Amino acid sequence: MRKGEIIDLHVEDLAFGGKAVARAEGMVVFIDAAVPGDFVRARITRRKPQYAEAVIEQILELSPARQQPACRHFGICGGCKWQYLPYQEQLKYKQQHAADALRHIGRNSSFIAHPILPSPQPWHYRNKMEFSFGSSPSGSIEVGLHQKGDFRRIVNIEQCMIQPSVLDDVLGYLRDEINQGALENSQRLTPYNNRNHTGFLRHLVMRHSHSSGQFLVALITASGAWPELESITGRFTARFPACGGFLWGVNDGLSDVARIESLRFMKGDGFIEERLNHQTFRVSAFSFFQTNTAGAELLYDTVRQYCELEGSENVLDAYCGTGTIGIHLSRYARSVTGIELVPQAVDDARCNAVINNAQNCTFIAADMRSALRSLSASSQPHFDRIVVDPPRGGMDKKALRMLIELGAPLIVYVSCNPTTLARDLVTLAEGGYEPDDVQPVDMFPHTYHVESVVKFRRCSQVAPA
Ligand SMILES: C[S@@+](CC[C@H](N)C(=O)[O-])C[C@H]1O[C@@H](n2cnc3c(N)ncnc32)[C@H](O)[C@@H]1O
Fold first, then answer.
1. How many C-beta neighbours within 10 Å does residue 379 have?
2. Which helix (DSSP H) or strand (DSSP E) does residue 418 occupy?
3. What's the predicted TM-score (pTM) here?
């Protein structure tokens, strides 16, 4: 098999990361956009000693498992790549990937893998969307998502089937307003170009409350004047009374992420409220909040069950964000201590504790390692339960070892990345923790991503550091 060679392949499986798997000449070939059961003619694009990669040239036989993708932007937009699989099939593969990662990378199969919990809403489930600005060939301004295979190009999105429908209307309205403004001021209202770092319009971030129907809009630009934004805000809020906040953020950073260096509140104070399992949380435009609200309720319910709380336990909520998990648990525990790096999220967490009358919660704004160092050095309560919910990259190894040394009988690990979860499982096992139960939860339908909750029980003494 050589790069450029065309071969016919029977697709057998889907790998974590979304690529399809076939075999040729005793080697695994990863294929983009294929489905198990497909028979394809494919071109080898990469040849490594252990595996090859290929793209489809022609589908010779369609898999009976395939379905027609529902979204009009499918295949061009880089999101929701699994739409050609029926939802039940997507769940089957996610379940398999969550458990396989622990078995193969984590080298452990002593756990019970429970059937995946489906997202209560397979469509319109996302409460936060982040769009970018671009230009059409005719020069009009487009607002959309990154193109499949070319991150620098923007696909003009008219309807996104994973966001609440009202946000489609908002997207269309703002696109029209901005194009109208650009007709009058074409020099200033230009999309930001990530190659040469020129232009003005960067991102549009929207956050929607599932429970109240309210939403927040944040327009992010490079620095510069935008005097017309005042009147745009007036017209917008008259057209959309459910708009709880309209913000203008400025970002002159080089990277293509929707962060802000300064913020102006055009309307509202920058927060909306969301209800999760009968509790109310303040959500700001840029703090971390689980993007699938109804899915988050299932996720947090699972965490509560896995914590086996009886009311007398001191709980550590590591990587607590805006305090949602800890505040959920606070009703069933003696105390909750949350640790979070982002000070704004900690402010939200403290405010959320007040809103929910969770007086037994304390939140620490610090990096995990330094917070754990001070907790171990102080006479803080012994922790009976630890919940960890780190970012996609998993836990820093030193921080994980410090956490193990706290010696809690149970650690509940929430992860959005089976690979880093499996890597951390190895360190936890070295520290005397074994996984009892694994509960995958689908928070991201139509993508290959899967969330997992794992209950680790301390089986032996902590290994010396
Ligand atoms: C996956 S989110 C979980 C948030 C929260 N548990 C929830 O369900 O909404 C991970 C959180 O870890 C925080 N974080 C990232 N690195 C950190 C570090 N080194 N120390 C403390 N917190 C960190 C992020 O700011 C983010 O809020």
1. 6
2. helix 418-430
3. 0.92
CA of 364 to the centre of ligand 1 (A): 12
Contact predicate 284/344, CB 8 Å: yes
391 lines ligand 1 (CB under 6 A): yes
- Please state the rounded mean pLDDT for residues 382-393: 96
Atom of ligand 1 nearest to the CA of 321: 27
User: Does ligand 1 have an atom closer than 6 angstroms to the CB of 384?
Assistant: no
> Which residues belong to CATH 2.40.50.140 in the chain?
6-61
Distance CA 227, CA 450 (A): 43
Topology of domain 88-121+292-458, CATH: Rossmann fold (3.40.50)
Closest CA to 154 of 166, 169, 144, 167: 144
Helices (H), 282-358: 293-307, 324-330, 343-355
Per-residue confidence (pLDDT) for residue 462, from 0 to 100: 52
Closest CA to 368 of 354, 353, 388, 383: 388
Ligand 1 atom with the shortest distance to the CA of 390: 10
| CATH for the stretch 6-61 | 2.40.50.140
Q: Could you tell me the sign of the dihedral formed by the alpha carbons of 391, 395, 399, 401, in that order?
A: positive
Would you state the structure tokens that stand for residue 298, as one six-digit string? 């299932």
Catalytic-labelled residue, pool 80, 351, 416, 459: 416
Instruction: Give the residue whose CA is nearest to atom 16 of ligand 1.
Output: 341
DSSP state of 187: T
Would you call 361 a catalytic residue per the annotation?
no
Q: Specify whether the backbone of 383 is left (phi greater than 0), alpha (psi in -120 to 50) or beta.
A: beta
Residues 6+ apart with CB under 8 A from 24: 1, 7, 9, 52
Q: What is the C-alpha separation between 289 and 274, in angstroms, rounded?
A: 10
**DSSP code for 117:** B
- List, by residue range, all CATH 2.40.50.1070 domains of the chain: 128-276
First to last CA, the chain: 48
The predicted structure's pLDDT at residue 156: 95
Q: Which residue spans of the chain are classified as CATH 3.40.50.150?
A: 88-121+292-458
77, two tokens:
């937009």
pLDDT in tens, 70-102: 999 999 999 999 999 999 999 999 999 999 999
- 128-276 is a CATH 1.10.287.130 domain: no
Residue 10, sorted as left (phi over 0), alpha (psi -120 to 50) or beta, turns out to be beta
